[in-house]
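step 4 of 6: structure.
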Amino acid sequence: MIARFSLAVGLSVLMLLTSVGTYMYLGGRQSKVAVPAQKPTAASPRAHAYNLSGTLYLSQSGAIYSLSTGRFHQLTPEDGWTQPSLYPDNSNLLAVRRQPFYSDVYVLGRYGQVVRKVTSNTAPARSHDTTGDSHWSFYPRLSPDGNTLWMSYDSPKFGYDVPFSIWAMPLGGTIRQGKLWTNAIDYTGGDMQPIPLRGGGIMYTKFSYGPDENLVGQLWRTTRPTPSGVEGKALTQPGEDCIQPSISPDGTQVVMVCTFEKQIAHLEIASWNGTTLGPRRAVIVDQMVAQPTWAPDGSGIAYLAPAVGSAPFQLWFLPKDAYNPPVPSPTPVPTPIPGGPYNGTLPSPSTAPAAAAPVIKPIQITTNDGFDATSPMAWAP
Amino acid sequence: MPLGIKPGRRARASRRRLSITRTAVLAVFAVFISAMAGSLAYFLPAAKLAWDATGQVVSIASPTPLPSTAQSSPTPTPANLQGQGAFTVLLLGSDDDSKFSADHVLTQSMILVRVIPSSKQVIMLSIPRDLYVPFWTGGSGKIDGAYSYGQAGGAIATVQQDFGVHINDYIWIGLLGLVKLIDAIGGIDVVTSAPVIDDYYPSDIYSRNPYDYERVAVLGGPQHLDGIHAMQYVRSRHNDLQSDIGRSKRQQQVLLAIRQKAKQMSPADVPSLAAALGGEVKTSIGLDRVAQLIPLAATFDNPDSITTMVMTPPLIHGGGPGGSLLPNWSAILALVRAYFP
């Protein structure tokens, strides 16, 4: 038997706890879709599970991070820093610092300190046309000799038509000393992401209108400045819609992202002889992959892609065996040996079934980080 | 009767005490009531906002067939587009900045969506905002003005009249609503077809001067877009040879990305979503029907069952008054009849 007063007090407390608890329970049942990405240096779980060789540089929320021996280090503050690329001798980094209305290329030390500013893309103080005189620079890369800076730069532009073109300029010079290398197609977005080739020239992504009048990306190669309109040649078909190429360390393969004009992004590999691409091989077809980058030791390919139940665009690694499986060792076949007590007909040797190659899946390196998928990664040995 | 206890006092003591069974029943009832109260407190703000946003009543007169409509040859409608429960929604996306008074805004985006639950098919047809059409209210002009003259009812009536299609419901969202919606679902993952670079992008959402402009650059390829950058991607048209047609294609990409992201959400997300969208979304779909459609949307998981279409030449051609696009009605109506019975 319970006193009524005690019962009233008890029920009141119970009701209060239940209603507050229900409210909090429902609040806790919210999905994590709107949870902001964590800083790589603070994200949980940490990226210890799989140690990549060398040092990988990548960007998140306007900051550049390095990943080395399973630990992230923040190299720059969150201030528009993106698109790191390495000097040929790996001594420094090139990076883009993006402001609201323009962007510039900088040289950074391997620990993120600013060495110097390379471009000056803000409109001059005396400009009467701050819009027209401001520029974007993206995707900086250095030539193999380290003297020439390649980048996508929005010049020339024609009123509403603002395409990116590929420019080359002396690393210690100015854009006035630069050369216009490509002739961007009007009203397409233009030419992006140049990659200097060992034999001279560049591979880059050209955006154009395909036969079906959709905007598509194509890989192109050109070997000389051709602002007049006569350029090199296309390496991929418009319908493949391929972008973001990366050349293997031994220079014999190219990995790229092909979208086939859809909201998908396949990771495709093709052989590369310096002038043409071989047949494509899709190695990942079930993820929205971006910015594939070869490991400098050839051990695999890092890329960015969303992960289920996690912030978008995590770091993934595809081991070499996944796209270049080792040749299975020959299965020993019993060979009949004449002699012994048996003198009948010998069984004919049959072909042994080939051993099934183990399926190598991509490895998710990070969780909850949310990297900038428009920023290529740089990978130092 | 024990000594020392008076009958009246004992009765009072008995009334102050309850049996264990009755106490347990009371406790269960209290838990139930308080859990309901907690749930109500959690969902009430969302329900209030949803009640305000949904079930909008529109008055539409019967569409008047145009001569061009009558002349077009009838196209047989595939039976699978007429499945049970199929319905057509008109999606309207508007400027809602201070250039215009409320409810007299232009529609930057107008998309007919046919949903066929039985075959889990979705068909989307973007109508160019510059299409020169007769208005339901009389006169002619770019179709983006239909909402301005008659709000949602005017836009629906104009589309019904000109395209010979029956529209069951509409959903209207303002620019700021799109930004808030995408931010509320944590952004979207999109494969942008090409870089969108615009030196004269309207800076009218958070600016004091609605006629101001700014430079924007959305790079190409797979990426995660927040609300502002998604809006830049779908709204810019200066640096696109196809202008509004190209923009319509981008709008459809973003719509599909929103749908993809929304599939990861749970009912507990509704209050935060509703709070984010407060006043920026209106629809004629009732709250009860919204509750039915949300689980239905999650079952549309085959990308190949979603057909997206944009009106391009020869369905339309330039040269209309004021830079508008002139319709090729016979071709348009054949297309509409084929997909929007």
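step 5 of 6: annotate
 - Chain A touches chain B through 82 residues (CB under 8 Å).
 - Residues 218 and 247 of chain A are 15 Å apart (CA to CA).
step 6 of 6: archive
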